[in-house]
Design goal:
This protein is 33% helix and 21% strand. It has 242 residues and is an alpha/beta fold.
Length: 242
């Protein structure tokens, strides 16, 4: 069996590499790719760690590329899989969200704001974003003292756990799926960008303000900002402790 693994997440990629070292996977060939311009495709980062050696644009790859593989695994891949691929090959997505809620970008951010469930979903892919029959999904907790970064780390640990549990059946196809009762909701990158700029004249409750700021706080990134009276752009994040 030959599997195409496409990932743009260094942590998930490194843990998946360790997982497939088990003897039970020795007869399976895993080829690793990342999206074009992905951080995982950065040559300097590849030299620092065990990262994908090749990048691929699925929209341009074509049928000859698709035919090489029995299974496509999306592990935090930022590309939309084209219809020609999802309709001809089994494609499975490991999504850092609890489908059908907050499909799309930054599920943990919107879960803090709209109080919908968040977690991990492994599902077969169709032509829609983060959509298709669910193989397994598992919710993670969101506490009042969590930032987006805290929730995301919890989600990643759950992703690794579910991959350890379900990889054998993902490879064999010996699983059952179900379709959620509702289409849920979806958020785009532009929805996140709208949240980043804070309106200092907006009237909201303390609860809403704290939720917004903790949802936008993610270590290593500057997200929420405002402009002061002198037109200085000022970034803001919060620290919470129980």
């Amino acid at each position: 069996m030959r599997v195409c693994v496409i990932t743009d997440n260094r942590m998930i990629h490194e843990n998946f590499r360790k997982l497939i070292q088990a003897p039970r996977y020795q007869d399976t060939v895993f080829d690793f790719f990342c999206s074009v311009n992905s951080q995982c495709g950065n040559e300097n980062l590849r030299q620092q760690g065990n990262l994908p050696a090749r990048s691929v644009c699925l929209a341009e790859a074509g049928e000859a590329f698709f035919r090489q593989y029995d299974l496509f695994l999306s592990l935090h891949c930022k590309q939309m899989f084209p219809a020609a691929l999802v309709n001809s090959r089994r494609c499975v997505n490991v999504h850092p969200g609890y489908n059908p809620y907050n499909r799309g970008w930054y599920p943990q951010v919107f879960a803090i704001l709209n109080k919908l469930p968040v977690g991990v979903t492994i599902h077969e892919m169709d032509e829609k974003l983060d959509h298709g029959p669910v193989i397994v999904r598992r919710e993670v907790a969101v506490h009042s003292w969590d930032t987006s970064y805290d929730v995301y780390n919890r989600i990643q640990q759950m992703e690794i756990q579910l991959l350890e549990e379900y990889l054998p059946v993902l490879l064999s196809g010996d699983y059952q799926t179900f379709v959620p009762d509702t289409q849920g909701n979806m958020n785009r990158e532009q929805d996140f960008q709208k949240l980043c700029r804070l309106d200092l004249n907006r009237q909201i409750t303390w609860r809403e303000a704290i939720d917004l700021l903790r949802a936008m706080t993610f270590d290593g990134y500057q997200n929420a900002y405002f402009y002061d009276e002198e037109n200085n752009k000022v970034y803001i994040e919060v620290h919470l402790s129980r």
